[in-house]
Here is the input.
Amino acid sequence: MPDVHQVIVGPVITEKSSAAYQARKEYAFRVQSEATKPQIRAAVEALFKVSVTDVRTLVVRAKRKSYGRYVGRRPAWKKAIVTLKEGDAIPVFEG
Here is the structure.
């Protein structure tokens, strides 16, 4: 299993994700594309000392970007939406 610090790349803090963790205690993370749900669960529980009840994953597709006549694309990445047990919270998102 990869190191827990390598599985979780970083938090996804957007208007939609902040509304989700305030209403339903769902936290969004950018994770490695090879990470599995059990690895994500173990990494979140080890890093933040919380109890995870559900993990959902999705792959955010690559976007085409053009800069004048130059065309490129942003890479695809994997997002994990983690639901915590009632009463648990992650302070990174609360601040």
Q: What stands out?
A: The chain has a mean pLDDT of 91. Residues 4-85 form a domain with the Alpha-Beta Plaits fold (CATH 3.30.70.330).
